[in-house]
Amino acid sequence: MAERVETLNMPKRRTGGAPQWVDALLTLLRYIILFGFAILFIAPFIFAIANSFKTAPQIASAPLTLIPNPFTLENYRKLTQGAANVPLWTLNSIIFAVSVTLARVFLCSLAGYALARIHFPGRNFIFLAVLATMMIPGVVLLIPRFIILKQLGLLATYPGGILPIVVDAFGIFLMKQFFESVPGEIEEAARIDGATPFQIFSRVALPMATAPLIALSILAFQGTWNELQHFLIALGPTARDLWPLTLGLATLRGAGVGQQLDFGLFLAGSLLMTLPMALVFIVFQRYFVESSSHAAVKG
Amino acid sequence: MATTHIAGQRRQELVAGYSFVGPALLILLIFLFIPMFFTLWMSFRDWGGISPPANSTPIGLEWYQKLLFEDNIRRSEFFLAFKNTFYYAVGVVPIQTALALLLAVIANSALLRFKGFFRTTFYFPSITSSVAIGLIFLWIYQSGGILNQTIKFFFPDYKNISWMNDPSGLIHNTLGLFGLNIRTAPSWLTETNVLSLTLWQWISGPSVTMSALMMLVIWTTAGTMMLVFLAALQDVPRPMYEAAAVDGATGWDQFWNITVPMLRPTIFFVVTLGLIGTFQVFDQMYVMTSGGPAGTTISLAYLIYRAGFKDAQMGMASAISVLLFIIIFVATLIQRRVFGDRAQT
Q: Domain spanning B64-169+205-344: which CATH class is it, in words?
């Protein structure tokens, strides 16, 4: 550390602090850049919301107007008509996201706890194998997962949509790291009192792990709610009644290739799909920040 | 007595350990480990996806032969997808990393207000599904859409770009400004065939449509990566900057001589994640372009999907998967060389 600071002595352009007006100007510049980007990041959503309440001719002629005139709910109504079965797809999204989240939280914390606390032969090997799965690019598994689901008779079923993504190596890793970071005396005391390992896990260890459990739940819910590729393979192009929102809306777009797309419908659908995540985000913001490094894997 | 007690405890730990790890392990085994080897096995076979996979015909290395060594349509498609994916990754990764770092450094200033607001707005696109964002941007990118209208507002002479339907490459277009196009290009460029694409095709750059997808992905992910950098910046000791400032180092000097060296491991991490992610790009193509126009947005992942599920060539799709795995592996090794070595000196 010391040598690094030493090398910084070299560039001597100005001695003493910069004049005050330079500092003020720099601060102003910072704000201009940050607000500029803030607008860039949020504007698409604002315009999407405004236009989702407009009529089709209005969307075409005046997309930049922020106040819909006349105001219409027609686009949202269309989500329940024709090929679009958004109420059912929303229900499916909820079914998939909730089951994956609950199962993943349970299985990953169970495995992570065992790898951190219970001494059994093969433990290190298993942990390394779990870590190794994190290196597998998901897209490489598309074809074989299809084959395996087909062999198990799980193609286009709810379990086929849920099971393959129920365990996530990162989740196991996260829980193991957590349990290793907390002292084990209380668990030891519970063991001496005659509690079974599962009792110790569920009554003593798990209640301490609120923070990583919430982070893991958010990751699982967000990942499943937004997932497209896996459901495309596991549920297929014909099982419309099982589709989650992502697959339903994406396929609806595909069906309209070559014709004029009904953008009002897609804007309404996209916003509807975004709303639950936005609510979760607002409530649990700080946990998102903690788990963001993992989410970065997804492009 | 004591020894049997310890033995009993050992046995209990063994049973508990395996029954705790077992369910998760079983899922990983069935849906991750076995599929890995299954891909490899299937890449040596010819299978349409309907009959039981065991009935597929073993054909040895034929898919690899066709994809890599024979001048035919399959090889030109594979390398077209490779070229598209390569330009995509090489465009997206540096820009998203640089933008994220820039925003993080600016937002990290101690005196800055509204930090929470900036963090929230920058991060929001990353929590939204790629399908929702894809559909919204499909609308934004229309030729009469709000992007073109906004540009036109500032530059009245601007001619609408059809963002979602322009196969011309950025490098081709740039060369075109200097009068070099397919008609004026020398024949060694237009006629030399390298891996079933002409040299002229290789140097196209990403198409306008692919660039539109790249902008969208940079827009989506920059916020996430910014948060990673912000977290890392907390660990850079402030006295270093203060000492440098006393010695007269400008903000620019401080950035290059303190911030970048201190953040090198984080930059390495972000670039690795970026590479792994970009080489697998799929959702944007599926939702927005279906690989078009003129095949310029077919990524390797999209090619795997199309070969396996549209053209019923599961064997070939598996062979492409194996090749993609190798490509990602090599790309991360190369970038490890570039960043890793310097991190040690």
A: mainly alpha
